[in-house]
Design brief:
By secondary structure, this protein is an alpha/beta fold. The protein has helices at 6-12, 15-18, 23-29, 138-143, 184-192, 212-219, 233-270, 304-326, 328-336; strands at residues 2-4, 32-34, 40-43, 54-56, 76-78, 98-100, 108-109, 120-122, 135-136, 150-152, 172-174, 198-200, 225-226, 229-230. Helix 5 links the parallel strand 11 (172-174) and strand 12.
Length: 346
């Protein structure tokens, strides 16, 4: 393994650029250091590099971020493809604008509370334990709420992005090859991110959903590119008009249904104050009943049998009325079984 020391830096520098300068003098005015792919595992004391703006340390074996307190002027830090397990010791980098940490072993995005100038954060493709996903510390997200514009969280088993809604100035989200399944999981953040210009979700299950593209475009009025394809203004206008028309039809149907049910709602409200009296109906059966009620027009004139039938009809009617006041349930049963009427005492 190799330690990142001033000596290593001196060996990596182009001697022609140094001329006759001492290493210490040269490092004090150095703004860029390229130390990638040097098999470095430990960052040593680099305090002489006070004016450092850009530090390239990607493709090494670094396990811990430390000894960078001196770099108060650092603006870009490249640490991707190392063995880093935790984001830490960055509090002094108050001018940092771009941080690259992809391809490490980070499970929680944290330790960014003081980086209020950070514009870009790249934490894609972390080497995660089986079944785990990258999480976000709310404190770090709150600190980045107004500054962060570019976020790369690709290939991190992320299944929802609602926690990121606080990033109000995000303009480019790269979240390819994750586990986002539903457009509804995106609708909330798309409504909040009014500055979003580019969205990349390739490789997520949500991309296979019907009308995925249409729904995303309808939800985000500022979006200019989706999954690497430009969104044309004519396409957006067509979808917005179609959505407005659909919403209007839905509203009209709802109002029509409410108007149709309005009279019934009036009667339902009165039911509580005015109880219903039971109404009984003779059952419609194919068999002829055991008694008959004949109208005047069907009775044979001047017949003793007709007078007897009328007399029996009157008595049955009178008895039914009398019993209905006493016990309506029994009467209902008898009426549903007409043969029992003959057994009723007259």
């Amino acid at each position: 393994m190799v330690r990142l020391t001033l000596e290593l830096i001196g060996k990596s520098l182009n001697q022609k650029n140094r001329r006759d300068e001492s290493l210490a003098h040269y490092l004090r005015k150095t703004t860029h250091l390229k130390l990638s792919n040097k098999n470095i595992d430990i960052i040593d004391d680099l305090s002489l590099c006070k004016n450092l703006n850009v530090l390239y340390l990607y493709d090494n074996q670094i396990r811990q971020i430390h000894n960078l307190d001196f770099a108060t002027n650092l603006r870009h830090l490249y640490l991707q493809n190392n063995c880093i397990t935790r984001i830490e010791n960055l509090a002094s980098l108050i001018k940092l604008e771009k941080l690259y940490l992809g391809g490490n072993y980070i499970t929680v995005v944290e330790g960014l509370e003081t980086l209020e100038e950070l514009r870009e954060l790249h934490v894609e493709s972390q080497q995660l334990p089986l079944g785990e996903k990258v999480l976000f510390d709310p404190r770090s997200l709150h600190s980045l709420a107004k500054s962060l514009t570019v976020l790369n969280i690709s290939n991190n088993n992320i299944d929802e992005v609602s926690d990121l809604a606080i990033l109000e100035n995000i303009s480019h989200l790269i979240a390819v090859d994750n586990q986002i399944h539903h457009v509804k999981d995106l609708e909330f953040v798309l409504g909040v991110w009014t500055n979003l210009r580019k969205l990349e979700l390739n490789g997520n299950p949500v991309c296979q959903k019907p009308k995925y593209k249409d729904r995303v475009i309808q939800q985000s009025k500022s979006l200019e590119s989706l999954d690497g394809k430009e969104i044309k203004e004519m396409e957006r206008q067509f979808l917005m008009n179609w959505k407005a028309s659909r919403d209007a039809r839905k509203k009209n149907r709802t109002e029509s249904m409410m108007n149709e049910h309005a009279p019934y709602l009036h009667f339902d409200n009165n039911d509580k104050e005015h109880p219903h009296f039971p109404i009984y109906y003779f059952p419609m059966t194919k068999e002829k009943p055991n008694f008959a009620i004949l109208s005047e027009m069907h009775r044979p004139p001047h017949s003793k049998e007709s007078h007897r039938t009328v007399h029996e009809e009157d008595r049955v009617t009178e008895k039914i009325s009398h019993l209905s006041l006493k016990n309506p349930q029994n009467v209902q049963k008898n009426l549903s079984e007409p043969h029992l009427l003959r057994q009723m005492p007259l």
